[in-house]
Write a structure and sequence with these properties.
single chain; 288 residues; alpha/beta; Rossmann fold; 7-stranded mixed β-sheet; two-stranded antiparallel ribbon
């Protein structure tokens, strides 16, 4: 192969050289740490403290493969087939979005506001199941369900629940054409639905456009609130009085969604900013 890589130090030098100009230096360092920890199954401190550690050639070949995939823009989470989310290990595939840090903030908000809850929670458009699983693990008194239109996503979500010892009922359903028999009364509905308009595509990175599932990302410019409207309609039937809605939102849609909830008689409606100062979450409580 003509590449002489034997130690952790050699791997770091190789990845820095190969990925330079494709990713920022800070991201290369972060990617290198994750790759080493995942492939070598070793800790960050160990990798930093012992750079002369000899790496088995099977691991070297695996790291070269990962580097090759990174160079063509494939997200590391898809290459490794997993990611971290709220201190959980979540498997990902091309049927599902890669969980984002903002969504961890949404989970954190729900956990903090419902610490002693013994109610039921429904995660609409669950994808990997990361939201539902994190809530089930951290709110053990609750009963959690999640649904998705993608059969592949439901299969993956069930696997992720098993991996994290979480009790969650995952099922297939279409929020735009829901079968009433699939749903029961619930106390919290949470969702991170598609909310990026088609016209925003040109602003997005290629590694998102080319590798992540478009139907989990985009909505038509003509009806950007289509999924929220459907969930609010479903909530009219299944959300208990005093029940709560929690949405992750497009930063430009906050006021419109606020007005919709207000017109449906919700109280305590609040738009909440994410760690980057963008309007990212909306919550409200159903009256009567």
């Amino acid at each position: 192969m003509g590449i002489n890589i034997q130690t952790i130090k050699d791997i770091k030098v190789y990845l820095t050289k190969e990925l330079k100009g494709i990713y920022p230096d800070s991201e290369i360092r972060a990617l290198t740490i994750i790759i080493l920890e995942t492939v070598l199954k070793s800790g960050k401190v160990q990798n930093l403290a012992f750079p002369e550690t000899i790496v088995p050639q099977k691991h070297v070949h695996e790291i070269l493969r990962i580097c090759s995939e990174l160079k063509r823009g494939k997200p590391l989470q898809y290459i490794l087939g997993e990611t971290d989310f709220y201190n959980l290990r979540i498997k990902v595939n091309n049927e599902t979005l890669i969980p984002r840090p903002e969504t961890e903030e949404l989970v954190d908000l729900i956990i903090k506001e419902n610490k002693n809850s013994t109610g039921t929670i429904l995660d609409a458009g669950t994808g990997t199941g990361c939201i539902a699983i994190a809530l089930a693990v951290n709110l053990p008194g609750t009963s959690v369900s999640g649904f998705d239109i993608s059969d592949g996503a439901v299969v993956l979500a069930k696997e992720n629940a098993r991996l994290n010892n979480a009790s969650v009922n995952f099922f297939r359903a279409d929020i735009l054409n829901p079968d009433p028999e699939l749903f029961s009364e619930t106390d919290i509905i949470v969702s991170n639905p598609p909310y990026i308009t088609e016209s925003e595509k040109e602003l997005m990175d290629g590694n998102v456009l080319y590798f992540e599932p478009g139907r989990a990302l985009f909505v038509p410019d003509s009806d950007p609130l289509v999924f929220y409207s459907a969930m609010i309609k479903l909530a009219y039937t299944i959300l208990n009085p005093g029940g709560k809605l929690y949405f992750e939102i497009n930063e430009v849609m906050g006021n419109d969604l606020y007005n919709i909830l207000d017109s449906h008689g919700y109280s305590g409606i609040k738009i909440i900013k994410d760690i980057n100062g963008k309007d990212r979450f909306l919550k409200g409580t159903k009256n009567g």
